Amino acid sequence: MSTVCVGLVCSARIQQLSLAQALADSDLQLGPCLRPEDFLAGDVRQNPQADAWIVDVSDEQGNEAYNAWLETVEQPIIFGDGCAPDVGSHAHTLWFERILAQLVQLKGSLQDFDTRHSRQQNVCVLAASTGGPAAVKTFLAALPKGLDISFIYVQHIDAEHDKTLLKMMSANSHYPAYIAAHGERLQAGRLALMSPTIALNVLDNGTFCQAKNSQWLGAFSPSIDQVIANVSSVYGAKAGAIVFTGMGEDGLVACRLLAQQGGYVWAQTPESCVVGSMPEAVIAAKLVSFYSTPEGLARHLVNSLNRRKYTKARKITMNNASQ
Questions:
Q1: Local structure of 64: helix, strand or coil
Q2: Measuring CA to CA, how many Å separate 6 from each of 52, 94, 226?
Q3: What is the topology classification, in CATH, of domain 123-313?
Q4: pTM given for the model
Q5: Does domain 5-113 have CATH number 3.40.50.10140?
């Protein structure tokens, strides 16, 4: 995800510092920091560069340059929530939480409208439960660097273990992991970990968006069925799911939908699993077009992507030749 740069327009220096801290806590980049009187200077009459603005000033009706900028600025603006109370006070905590909530919403909104990534990308859901981290780690280690595909990893896990899983999957990997969150993006060549605490959907521009009830449906968190169903509805034939080791049948229902949409369903061979119930369920339902060990699944994915790339290039060549 490209960094979101937020500019500040504030009357007071202390307010700029408080808002800058809120931006840092929201993983947003601090942009230009201006005062209303700065707009009277020629070098800032042109719109300074920022993806969005926070404006928190006193009444500036007499500043024509500042008011003209407000009327013409194209980027989103958050109007301030009043001066920050004294640091350490309960009122400051409440003020800070309100600002953070606004920034999270702003970040998600900006990513929603950013269409640089679209449903044209390849997306693969890696689904696992018992024994999953080791199997998925082996699968990723067998892949070459730089494949043009985005991975979403759905692992049944307790809430307090998500940071541990993040460290494990990122260590010595060609496909570094990050925890998916509202406003984050699917990223080619990276592994998005679904949080067990907050249910997320993927939009058609690749942005993660918090689900309405914010809770995963069903008995497991995160829900494999919920993620695969969402991905299949958005990406269709550009999506796939690989069912690794695990107990139960989470993912079975949604894999039927994915297959109907033209996506692929692969599975780890049950005999190579710690617990084979999950892959056995999709294999028995005749939804799986390929199954192998984690290393074999990696080789098959590489070959599949290469075939797609060749087919696409061949179609472009044939279309050019017919013109």
A1: helix
A2: 5, 21, 34
A3: Rossmann fold (3.40.50)
A4: 0.65
A5: yes
